[in-house]
Design goal:
Family: Belongs to the LolA family.
InterPro entries: LolA/LolB/LppX (IPR029046), OM_lipoprot_carrier_LolA-like (IPR004564), OM_lipoprot_carrier_LolA_Pbac (IPR018323)
Structural class: mainly beta
Distance between the termini: 26 Å
Subcellular location: Periplasm
Radius of gyration: 17 Å
Strand content: 35-45%
Organism: Pseudoalteromonas aurantia
Subunit structure: Monomer.
Largest sheet: 12 strands, mixed
Shape: globular
Order of helices and strands: HHEEEEEEHEEEEEE
Length: 216
Amino acid sequence: MTFQTKTLNTIFIKPTVLAFGLIFSSQVWASAADDLKAKLALMNSFEAKFSQQVKDEQGELLQSGQGTIALAHPLKIRWEQASPDETLFVSDGKKTFYFDAFSEQVTIMNTNGLIDTTPFILLTTRESAQWEKYQISNIKQGYRITPKPGIDSQVERLDISFNKVQNLSAIKVTDLSGQVSSFTFKDSRVNGKLAGSLFSFKIPEGVVVDDQTQGE
């Protein structure tokens, strides 16, 4: 499994049971959650280039990379890793495709089956039922999102940072193993018109197809 595969699995795909004893006062949670909701409510679409660093639990650098990201409401995501290996995660809001160019395999999933597995989904939905599954607190220059006890997620916490003009500037994902994936955005554009083709995927010829939507 490549580092890109593991990173995207962490953010989007592999669920596991969390049992945290973290306690936040309802007043603090409501304030932080409301603030974050208000910021994201102004972001109907977002696209940017990103640079990535993956570090292990001891802080040792495992990998660096770069790519592009595009988000749009509701539930539309395009996360493309260009280096060191090519991977692509695309959701049109209904179906989700994960393409690993190195292994020449495409995994197809129902988007509805993924939305409960990651706090990252809060960037692309305003549904109260999804927001209520996470605890949100203020950190320097942003917010920390952690799944509530009993919520399935491979993500231990998700930190979201904003710059001085309140644009999304960075995301840091910490998984249950302690591995930290940091993404810093540049050349970002908020609320631009995004082509629908960004969120569609044509399966290349000759690749292995793992269609997990069959029988659901």
